[in-house]
User: What shape does this take?
Amino acid sequence: MFKPIPVSIGLRYLRAKRRNGFISFISMASILGIALGVTVLITTLAVMSGFQKEIRDRLLQMTAHTTITTDGAPMADWAHAVEVAKKDPRVAGAAPYIEIQAMLSGPRVQGAIVQGIDPALEPNVSVINQKVKKGSFDSLTAGSYNLLVGQELAIYLGVGVGDTVLVTLAEVQGTPIGAIPRMKRFTVSGIFEAGYNEVDRGVAYANMADLEKVLRIDGVTGVRLKLHDMDKALDVGVDLAHNLTGAHRVSDWTQQNANLYHSLRMEKVVMGILLSLIIAMGAFNLVSSQVMLVTDKQADIAILRTLGLTPGGVMQVFMVQGSLIGIFGTVLGVIGGITLTLNLERILGAIETLFNVKLLPEDVYYITGLPTDMQTPDIIVITAVALVMSFLATLYPAWRAARTQPAEALRYE
Assistant: This one.
């Protein structure tokens, strides 16, 4: 027997056959409960992270990481801002834009955001040129008054390529009969599909020069930046604003899509907390098995006490034995969770083939696969939570074992 003695005895209790088979069953149920909880939690968070990453990537394909605007007045020196941005090694691309709320009228009427873009620079910050399904992105030439609309928006308006759309802007102009909104007829020259409902349903693109003429302004709303590391979006924007003359407003993608960004994070946190209850159930089973084990080992505890083992040593014996059960369950759960996550796409395909069903039909969902993004910090946190719960579950049974009185335990032996 090696030292420390409590660890040695705890390992023996873990390997020894139980006189009471029910205790062994409860111990096995504890291991499986903890393993199942860890497996489900790792897989679920990986899927939620995958969907979050997929939605974020699709959104950021069409929008900027950082946006720099002026307070109210159009940005007239946007060309200088673009040149300054290009000199920053952290910036992958920069492009000006005009953005305005408008009412689009075809056979039906629908509100949307009309963005004026520079077709030569826009591909540096978005992939709109790659998302055009009908028509052509190159049709957005200056003076053509052409319009690219999202697929969902085109359906709502009831228009197709070649149809005209009356764009009514929020800006007003004075006429002999009074102030009326600015209006201009545009021709639908293309329909795009971004794969994100908010963009496909609520955004249209025109040439920036055409919108400047309609709005009668000389300048743009701001400059959009695409970065190599989007987590540094706000810092890069602030640094660029400091290198420009005048007051500028900086916003990054987390601020522009704050509701979506925070809701996705909150869903992941809440789901993690709820699924942690499965691990807690396994820990409660561990408490039950340890309490029954302490009752079953009353005579052994009394003999160990008479041989000189302190109450603290007795407590350590059962803490070691219970903690090892939690460790085994956690390790099995981590292995199972990683394995299940890596093979989830194949499992989903097998289920669809076996039952002849489509779990994520293309005509209903934008995301037709089952994206996963297994993050190491999530696995570390889940492992730590499972180990802490397992350790806490051993405290009460071990404390009860330490309170055993040798004379009382051996009275009827």
Observations:
- The beta strands are 66-70, 91-105, 109-117, 132-135, 146-150, 164-175, 178-192, 203-207, 222-227, 248-252.
- The longest helix spans residues 21-62.
